[in-house]
Amino acid sequence: MAAELSLLNPGFGALCKTLLETCSQHGAEMRPNEGVRDPWQQARYWRQSRSKEEITAAIARLNNSGANYIAEILDEVGAQHGDPVTNALPGASWHQWGLALDCFWLVGGVAEWSTSRTVNGINGYRLYADQAEQLDLTAGGRWRSIKDWPHVQAKGPVSPLNKFTWAEINDEMVRLYPRNP
Questions:
Q1: What pLDDT does residue 180 have?
Q2: Which of 23, 145, 162, 181 is the most buried (most CB within 10 A)?
């Protein structure tokens, strides 16, 4: 899936465009594959690799925190299987706010996911993270927990939870995403 940069927050989208152009000028084509991500997709990603007990507990915490809409979304997406992708529940990722972008490194027309392989002395993900930081963006590849090399986000709190309550996040998700797309 290709990410549409025009759907991102305008200021952040402009920085992302500059980031991609700079990476290209340095010899690494970074291809946007996910920008704005609705809370249903975020719920699917979060539920991957989580036990039924973890999911049930998260739904209860959300309901108890005034985030009933987000709890419903987390419940309704159903069982998901796969490797861990994110620690962020729906609404707690800047993707839902238009302030995050994921890209993959394109090498010879093929997505390259290695963070150690180099082509002409360059690793696309390392360059992407370095250039993101030069633009005052946060690079997910520098995180301590889940290293998310394809991810960049606007500078500021690592999560909306560091700025808003669950009830406030819930209200914003209702406003931004009034029904399942």
A1: 55
A2: 23
